Amino acid sequence: DGGITQSPKYLFRKEGQNVTLSCEQNLNHDAMYWYRQDPGQGLRLIYYSQIVNDFQKGDIAEGYSVSREKKESFPLTVTSAQKNPTAFYLCASSIRLVGNEQFFGPGTRLTVL
Amino acid sequence: KNQVEQSPQSLIILEGKNCTLQCNYTVSPFSNLRWYKQDTGRGPVSLTIMTFSENTKSNGRYTATLDADTKQSSLHITASQLSDSASYICVVSPNDYKLSFGAGTTVTVRA
Question: Is the pLDDT of residue A1 over 90?
């Protein structure tokens, strides 16, 4: 998993609760990403960060929030505004935003009860 | 809209047999194409990468081909092993950060 860790591996949430997914990398990469994976669909980009203290919305940012206070860390918060949060969430990082391979973490499976 | 279509959606093969997975894309401009292997419940891991000028790339028993004119790629698995059971994802990169992911082909290898 290339020096990227995600925790927890499994997460259960009650409707109406916010939850935060952790992503840490020790690859000294500038860029980090959050994707959502649903059965039968390709990965979809939620948020990305090119550098510390900067992040941008991806294709499906509604109901999610992120922060990038440290180079190594890019936590994702799934808020109660996300209508269908049950999914597999993947964090990735790359040396820079453009032109470099993205390395993926092991993922967090979120289930809303 | 940039799209990546993979076929078949799933397949089952006997151990030791070969198989070929297909990827058609409409991404433009095109920078490179990767094949990733994703084990169940894990993150994707890159198998091969090909740029516009490359026709084929091998990684052990995995061989990827690319026809940039027809915008098609294939991944051939030779002498399949039980450990090849996974989802294989075609990922096309334009000249920016936004990757286009296929939905994947799920391969099941049976003894």
Answer: no
